[in-house]
Amino acid sequence: MDAFVVRLVELGGYWGIFFLMIAENVFPPIPSELIMGLGGVFVARGKMDFWPLLAVGTAGTVIGNYFWCALGDQLGYQRLRPIVERWDRWLTLEWNEVEKASAFFRRHGQWVVFAMRFSQFLRTIISLPAGLTHMSRWRFVLFTTAGSAIWNVVLIAGGRLLGSRLENAERIIGWLTIASIVVLICWYAWRVARWKPKD
Question: Which of 94, 123, 156, 173 has the fewest CB atoms within 10 Å of its CB?
Fold first, then answer.
């Protein structure tokens, strides 16, 4: 996967970054750490510039997250209930937990959206409850853009640092990304194995 992403970024340049960041947020298995980290490596090597990279990466992130927000807005809060009740074990949550989370989200939604941009596990899925609670679109876009831009700056800076010091920075970023995916899969498997209904 990392070799594929490296090749796509090399061939597609900024457009490659843009479409990969959209895909990363619609289909989360391609992590932003790999995409924007590679962009940072290319900045260090003079193949890309910082500001255009930040702009296209953040734009792709916002568009990908907006997809989930719009889907949640169309689905609606109550239509989610039969889905949760049927697949509760695999979602590792119950409907009363969804209700509590929804109440919290209605009070602090914009800050939750902003803060979750820094979470590898939740930054994409948080856009769905934003839509389910019908958060205003301009507020969602504003706080998603702000959080995503800050996170992308961190990823670009990290990739640029690695790229300026190590010749095989792409491979290191690739292995770190694979390790993070393995951790995520193990964490989910652990939650499923230990999950029990509370009632």
Answer: 94
pTM score, whole prediction:
0.81
Geometric angle at alpha carbon 116, from 26 and 189, rounded to 5°: 70
Please check the confidence at residue 88 and state whether its pLDDT lies above 80.
no
User: What is the chain's length?
Assistant: 199
At 35-73, the pLDDT tens digits run 898 899 999 989 899 999 999 999 999 999 999 899 888
User: 6 to each of 19, 37, 52, 62, 146, how far by Cα in Å?
Assistant: 13, 10, 18, 22, 26
If you average pLDDT over every residue of the chain, what do you get? Answer: 83
- 105: which 2 tokens? 């989200």
What are the start-end ranges of the H helices in the chain? Answer: 2-26, 32-44, 50-75, 81-86, 88-91, 95-116, 127-132, 137-165, 169-194
CA dihedral over 147, 149, 151, 153, signed as positive or negative: negative
* Of 20, 36, 54, residue with least CA distance to 163: 36
Cα separation, 108 vs 105, whole angstroms = 5
Residue/partner pairs of 26-29 with CB below 8 Å, 24 or more apart: 26/64, 26/67, 26/68, 28/124, 29/1, 29/181
**Residues 71-81: tens digit of each pLDDT:** 888 887 777 77
C-beta of residue 146 within 8 angstroms of C-beta of residue 33: no
